[in-house]
Design goal:
six-stranded antiparallel β-sheet, DNA-binding, homodimer, binds manganese (II) ion, alpha+beta, SH3 type barrels, Arc Repressor Mutant, subunit A, about 40% helix, two-stranded antiparallel sheet
DNA sequence: ATAATAAGTTAGTACGTACTAACTTTAATT
DNA sequence: AATTAAAGTTAGTACGTACTAACTTATTAT
């Protein structure tokens, strides 16, 4: 099964969208890939023909077992590459996603395994995302975001979106990194700012940003 | 100028063929890339439209200055990647070419420069090929091969083709690696075997193999 | 239930890259 | 000079991937 870069990326975003529970809607995929919805319809048919997704017309796509395997291998490649770039080549955590987005399609399993070995087989990438094993196992537990936290609750940051370098720099400057402890001290309604304490510092972040920072189960 | 993987590879082989002096013939390119000659004709027209090659109909293609720049950057990426894989990730020298052939199209200049730094900015890859600088300078002196050596002459091995892993393992087992000193002790005519002494060991290799091992100017 | 909106699909087009088959040009032989 | 072989080109086809425009289906609001 020799897939193109595009096909692989489709499978990856379908996997990620599906983690939300529902099948991946055409428009969600289109948005994530910055592609017209019509193009997605076309690709979904091709992927279905290859047995990688199951499409229910007008309803969305789900990965088949083989499709899921491809997605997980790609995710593994992506995350090990990011880890390697940060740990071994001095990249900033805000600067690796795009590079990994391309390299993930060119790296052989052998290369990935060698990188993983050189890193001591890490289980998480620099943004806290779990790294699937070579066998395709991965921690898929659903995380809540800071946006889901109740006022007064505490939680530990475990992961964040790595799409936007600026966003990552913003978070880091505020101490919001994997492992940080946060407490929500106030929330404004209507998607208003969320005030939180990170370490000793108090600050407010927007609801949209808060939704992209994931925490382990928020304790009262 | 955003080029596809294919376009980049075409420019690279045109560069390499042109090193022989003459413009790159359609069939030579086709052979090198394992592609039908008709396909090459088509691609040459596209590359010409992009101003990367100059095509003389029925005569062959030559790189323009911009085309040459692209080829040299690709060569740099390829060779630094090979060096990095061997030096930093424990790859065998026989096993890096194919991996580099893909990664070269996905790696950013930033990544390449970081790898080069980590390696101490090497000037040659594991097979003795010179690495172009970021500015696009490279040692282009023409080398003769063992096949060109006169009986009785000595020379130092500086470089060899890295296309075939098996060939590289064959050479290594016989001590034919960059830096080795060889002396031609006998030659059979009609493309017959060439007997040479490497270190203290005496052995005969085929003329085809000898033509793929390059040496510095053969001394009487 | 109807109408309006959002979401999704199909049809038609384009581009890059490859192929084969048929033709043309160039080079080599007689 | 005429013939043949080798090299190269063009024409026509296919596939993957994208687009826009037009249409259809599903969802939401009235
Ligand atoms: Mn990433
Ligand atoms: Mn990607
Ligand atoms: Mn190589
Ligand atoms: Mn290549």
């Amino acid at each position: 099964m020799n897939l193109t870069r595009q096909a692989e990326d489709y499978l990856k975003v379908i996997y990620e969208i599906e983690q939300g529970g529902a099948p991946a809607a055409t428009t969600s995929i289109a948005e994530e890939l910055n592609i017209a919805a019509a193009s997605v319809s076309g690709m979904l048919q091709r992927l279905a023909r290859l047995g990688l997704v199951k499409v229910e017309r007008y309803r969305g796509a789900r990965l088949t077992a083989p499709g899921r395997a491809v997605a997980l291998q790609l995710l593994r490649r992506h995350r090990i590459i990011e880890s390697f770039l940060v740990t071994k080549l001095g990249y900033g955590w805000d600067d690796v996603h795009e590079e990994a987005e391309r390299l993930e399609h060119a790296a052989s399993s052998e290369l990935i395994d060698r990188m993983a070995d050189a890193l001591g087989n890490p289980t998480e990438d620099p943004h806290g995302a779990p790294i699937p094993t070579a066998a395709g196992r991965v921690d898929e537990r659903r995380l809540s975001s800071i946006a889901d936290m109740k006022t007064g609750s505490r939680a530990r940051v475990v992961r964040m979106s790595d799409r936007d370098p600026e966003f990552l720099r913003y978070l880091k400057k505020r101490g919001i990194v994997p492992g940080a402890n946060v407490r929500v001290t106030a929330r404004e309604p209507f998607e208003g700012p969320i005030t939180l304490t990170v370490g000793r510092v108090r600050q407010a972040i927007g609801a949209a940003a808060a939704a992209l920072v994931y925490v382990d189960d928020a304790r009262a």
